[in-house]
From TrEMBL:
Its cofactor is Mg(2+). The modification 4-aspartylphosphate is found at D60. It comes from the Bacteria. It comes from Bowmanella dokdonensis. SMART domains: GGDEF (SM00267), REC (SM00448). This is diguanylate cyclase. Its EC number is 2.7.7.65. GO terms for biological process: cell adhesion involved in single-species biofilm formation; negative regulation of bacterial-type flagellum-dependent cell motility; phosphorelay signal transduction system.
Length: 304
C-alpha cells in the first residue's frame, strides 16, 4: 500500500452515483489521495464536466433518468470532455453489460461491491495515463522557443472558434503581427539575440491579451497570431494597440530599423458573415491588413 501511495498522482475525480452509500464507500477509499467531486445524477454529471472537466470519472451504470452509458456516450461526443477517462462501476457482471460499457466509451470497469485495492489501483493507473497524455498534448501544442501556443494549436483554436461563432452568430476577431526588419536584427545582433528578442516580444504581447478565451500563438518565424473570441473590431484594435505599446516599451535596441528599437506591424480582422465564408477568409483579411501596415511604414496597426 505504501508503494501505491508514492506512485499515486493527485487528480480531480468525479464520482457519479445516485446512492449515498456508494458515494460514501468510494469517498472513504479515495479521498486521501485525490480531489473528489460528487454528482448524484447523469444530468448533474454532464453539467459538472462541461463547466470544469475532471481528470477521471467513476460512473455508476444504473441510475434513474439518464443512465451511466448515455452519460458516457454524450461525454465522448463533446470535444471538451471526450478525453476524460470513464471507469464504470457496475452492479452486474454479465457479458452484455461489460460490452455495453466498452461500446459507450469506458476505459475500464469495477464491479460492485467495490474492492478497495482494485478501485485504488485502477484509478491510479488511468489517472497516470491521463495526466501524462495531458502533458504530452500540452507540449505538442506549445512553441518550444517562446512557450506560447504553436501553429497547430492556433489552427485548432481558430477552427473551433469559427464553428462556435457560426453557431452562436457571435463575434470573433483575429490579429496577425510581424516583427519589423527582423532579418536585419538577426544580421546585426546574431541569431541568439534574435531568439531572445522573440521570447521578450511574446511575453510583452501576452501581457496585452487578457481574457481567458484569448489565444496568442507563434504563427511561424517572427510572426504571431491572436484569436479573440467574442471580440469586435474596436476591441481587437485596442488589443493590437496595447500589444504594440508593450513591444515598444521593451525598448530593445534595433539600430538598422527606422525606429532604432524593435517594433511590430499588426493586421486586424473581425468576422463579417457577408464577407467571410470560412476561417481562412478571416485569416487572409488579417494578413492583408498586416501587409498594409508593412507597406505604409510599419510600427502600426491596420484594420481590414
Ligand atoms: N533568431 C531567429 N530568427 C528567426 C526565427 N524565425 C525566423 N527568423 C528570422 O526572421 C527573419 C524574417 O525576415 P523577413 O521575412 O525578410 O522579414 P523582416 O526582415 O522582419 O522584414 P519585414 O517583415 O518586412 O519588416 C529571417 O531572417 C528569419 O531567419 C527564429 O526562431 N529565431
Amino acid at each position: 500500500m505504501e508503494q501505491l501511495e508514492q506512485r499515486q498522482p493527485r487528480g480531480k475525480v468525479l464520482v457519479v452515483d445516485d446512492q449515498a452509500i456508494n458515494i460514501r464507500v468510494i469517498h472513504q477509499l479515495l479521498n486521501d489521495e485525490h480531489q473528489l467531486f460528487v454528482a448524484t445524477s447523469g444530468e448533474q454529471a454532464l453539467e459538472f464536466c462541461l463547466n470544469s472537466p475532471p481528470d477521471l470519472i467513476l460512473l455508476d451504470v444504473v441510475m434513474p433518468g439518464m443512465d451511466g452509458l448515455e452519460v458516457c456516450r454524450r461525454l465522448k461526443q463533446e470535444e471538451s470532455t471526450a478525453r476524460i477517462p470513464v471507469i464504470f462501476v457496475t452492479g452486474h457482471d454479465d457479458k452484455d453489460e461489460e460490452e455495453a460499457c466498452w461500446l459507450a466509451g469506458g476505459v475500464d470497469f469495477v464491479p460492485k461491491p467495490v474492492s478497495g485495492m482494485t478501485l485504488r489501483h485502477r484509478v491510479m493507473t488511468h489517472l497516470t495515463f491521463k495526466l501524462q497524455s495531458d502533458l504530452l498534448r500540452e507540449m505538442a501544442l506549445m512553441d518550444g522557443l517562446t512557450g506560447v501556443a504553436n501553429r497547430r494549436r492556433f489552427d485548432e483554436a481558430l477552427n473551433a472558434e469559427w464553428r462556435r461563432s457560426q453557431r452562436s452568430k457571435g463575434l470573433l476577431s483575429l490579429i496577425m503581427l510581424d516583427i519589423d526588419h527582423f532579418k536585419a536584427f538577426n544580421d546585426e545582433y546574431g541569431h541568439q539575440a534574435g531568439d531572445d528578442c522573440l521570447k521578450q516580444v511574446a511575453k510583452a504581447v501576452l501581457s496585452a491579451v487578457r481574457r481567458p478565451g484569448d489565444l496568442l500563438a507563434r504563427y511561424g518565424g517572427e510572426e504571431f497570431a491572436i484569436v479573440l473570441p467574442d471580440t469586435g473590431k474596436q476591441g481587437a484594435k485596442e488589443v493590437a494597440e496595447a500589444a504594440a505599446d508593450a513591444i515598444r516599451e521593451l525598448q530593445i535596441r534595433h539600430q538598422p530599423s527606422d525606429h532604432d528599437q524593435v517594433t511590430a506591424s499588426f493586421g486586424v480582422a473581425s468576422l463579417d458573415l457577408a464577407r467571410h465564408s470560412s476561417a481562412k477568409d478571416l485569416l487572409e483579411q488579417a494578413d492583408e491588413a498586416l501587409y498594409e501596415a508593412k507597406d505604409s511604414g510599419r510600427n502600426k496597426v491596420c484594420v481590414g
